[in-house]
Amino acid sequence: MTQAGLVAAGVISVEPLVLSAARSAFAGLDPGYGKAARSLGASEWQVFSRIHLPLAFRPVLGNAASVFLGVMAQLAMVWWFTGRILK
Are the CB atoms for 18 and 64 separated by under 8 Å? Predict the structure, then answer.
């Protein structure tokens, strides 16, 4: 198995965790902000891009960073146990 294969397997294995965290971050937002923007004439895309996305950015980014570190730790363990860098 190559390094790219290990990285791909790690990303695919943790993708459900990232998507679940992103969903919970968006679900945890206060719906009042979106309602207020819609009452002022904002479209659904504007509500998403200007209100929901910036509010959920930090939780999603934090979770993505922790998942990235977890994948890197798994790769480090594989390389440590095998005693060599895979090619």
Answer: yes
